[in-house]
Amino acid sequence: MQDLPDNTMLLASVEAFLKEEVMPQLDAAGGFRARVAANALAMVRRHLEQASADNTHDERERLYQLTGKKGTLAGQTTELCRLIADGRLGAGDPQLRDHLWLTTLAKLAVDQPRYSGYQRAREEWETFRANASGTRPHS
Amino acid sequence: MAEPARKGPVPVSETGMEEKLTPVVRRIFPDATVEGLKRLTGGANQQMWSLDVVTGSKHQPMVLRQTSDWNRDATGTLALDDEARLVIRAGEGGVPVPGVHQILEPGDGLGTGYLMARLEGETLPPKILRDDRYAEARSRLAGQCGEVLAAIHRLDVSGLDFLPATTPEGVVDQLYREYQGHGEPRPVFELAFRWLRDHLPPVPEKPALVHGDFRHGNLMVDEGGLMSVLDWELACLGDPMADLGWMCVNSWRFGHIDLPVGGFGTREQLFDGYEAASGDRPDPDRVRFWEILGTLRWGVMCQGMAASFVAGHDTSPERGAIGRRASETELDLLRELVPLTP
Q1: Which of A84, A111, A133 sits opposite B191 (nearest CB)?
Q2: Which of B330, B335, B326, B327 is nearest to B301 (CA)?
Q3: Which of B52, B227, B252, B281 is deepest in the core (most CB within 10 A)?
Q4: Given a cut of 90, is residue B73 above it in pLDDT?
Q5: Which residues fall within 8 angstroms of residue B159, CB to CB, at 6 or more apart?
Q6: Where are the domains of chain A?
Q7: B50 sits in which H/E element
Q8: How high is the pLDDT of residue B5?
Q9: Cα separation of B80 and B82, whole Å?
Q10: Region label for B149, one of left (φ > 0), alpha (ψ between -120 and 50) or beta (otherwise)
């Protein structure tokens, strides 16, 4: 699950910035291109709004394995937080380890794929998976 | 433009500002005038102004740091007049800081704040980390940070009663409340809070002055290295190792992931400088505790940006994009607390 603000809200924010702040400062031709750019973003945003209904199947399944709960992704995540805060799941749990790594890597792939920590973490994850024998990482 | 006739208005008119500032600078130099006044930064509650104080042919470059009276309630930050008193004390104790020329008084009608020297130096991380002119500075910067932190931590704080006293546990609790206030549960943050509570260092026998925000942006650098420490408003009394840990957070390395001190130096260089100046070698485990807390703190701050975007307080793309950087800190926390060992 990506964090807040979600993708469509970010796109709406950039659309408003282009139309309200950038366009008034440009000449007619530039203003037109800015409007086109904003409209393109709007297109992508609408597509995301329609298509985002269920692309988190794996994450929900892992959360179900960890918490024993079904329901919304946010509800499952809150339940996982409760188990961690209570000390019932901790850093030593391989299933929790795999879930947190996979979920966080997936978020960074969208949020900031150039982040130094992400590049390093991806190498670590790939090496770890290649070396893992016996207990195969959960995916 | 007329200012509203109430106490401590937010000054937005530069003309009005000049008139109000003139008596202030004349407390320093009786016949001085204010020239070249311009607003540098600032939102509704805090502003920075650049100005020259002119006496005869002499121009003194200064900065005014100023806030309106009704916005003094920000929790955890010092009032600017108290900050000025602390900066003066730091200067007396040998810490490189901009000289404080004058603290605003209530009768000045300018809110709370102070006039300080405007220094020529660089605070932008990309320039400090990449420009050739700072190559020499980079090689000694981490050691200098250690020396200057040692000087800060041994400052005499008697009479500075406005400094809040903190404990490691209190800092963790406060951050947890802030995190919970954002209403967005995060498993990695929960795990980090749990780890911090399980690894609380003992409360230091003698609490030291902690700068509280010792990192890029608040460190002014020239070709010779660290020339001035800015922004003291998050100062408190507490565990001095908090400053060393915060300085090592990956978010301030700007891609230079293997140089933990601001992307320009090693922990050994930082610790060597600290030990040379204080006689005490920092305890790496204790510094690590504060680095992990610092990483989480930046993550919760980013989460706060997202919360303010979602609540509609600031819906700029910039605010939203910073909000989404909380995930970076989650990955840094995972690499520290849930390392992958085959």
Answers
A1: A84
A2: B326
A3: B252
A4: no
A5: none
A6: 1-53, 54-139
A7: strand B46-55
A8: 36
A9: 5
A10: alpha
* A18-32 burial code (b ≥16 CB/10 A, e <16): bbeebbeeeeeeebe
Q: Do A116 and B324 touch (CB under 8 A)?
A: no
* CB-closest option in B184, B253, B325 to A116: B253
Structure ipTM? 0.88
pLDDT digits (tens, 9 = 90+) for B150-159: 999 999 999 9
Residue A50: phi, psi to the nearest 5? -80, -40
Burial of B304 (0-12, 13-18, 19+ CB in 10 A): middle
Composition of chain B by helix, strand, coil, percent to 5:
45, 15, 40
Please report which confidence band the pLDDT of residue A134 belongs to, taking 50, 70 and 90 as the band edges: low
Give chain B positions within 8 Å (CB) of A138: none
Work out the mean pLDDT of chain B and round it to a whole number: 91
| CA–CA min distance A29, chain B (Å) | 24
Amino acid at B137: A
For residue range B15-41, what is the model confidence (pLDDT) as tens digits?
688 999 999 999 999 999 999 999 887
Q: CA B207 to CA B238: how far, in whole Å? A: 5
Closest in A4, A108, A115 to B306, CB measured: A4
Is there a contact between B323 and A121 if contact means CB atoms under 8 Å apart? no
Sign of the CA dihedral with A35 first, then A36, A40, and A43 last: positive
What distance in Å separates the CA atoms of residue B247 and residue B226, rounded to the nearest whole number?
14
Torsion of CA B9, B15, B18, B21, to 10 degrees: -10
